[in-house]
Amino acid sequence: MSTINRRELLKFAAAGTVAVGTGALAVQVLTTSGSQAAVEDPAGLDETYKGRRIQAAPAGLRAQSRDAAPAMPHVLIDGKPLHVMVNGDGTYTSVSNHYETFKSLRAVARAAVDQLDGAQLVPLHHR
User: Which of 106, 110, 109 is nearest to 40 (CA)?
Assistant: First the structure.
């Protein structure tokens, strides 16, 4: 029976550390790429979900100016605007599901319809 000397033990430990680190990196890359927003149809969305009409269009750019900022996406439920915000990672959040993120405008609009449960959407007014 052979014994493992200190040098061989350190080589095995180093190899194990590299393997674990590589596996952890692979898991991080796979889960991060899965959280990216889905590609939106540039033509927008117009569908009926649970008897409610959902219309959505991805954000475009505001009028060309020196300090032009990206506009917010437009989502309508039965013709009334749903306030939708774009998160830093490209996912969406709405005023009706503020603590959840969604990968697409379709998903955020459908979640709002589910949350409304038949109630009418009341537009948000900024003062």
Answer: 106
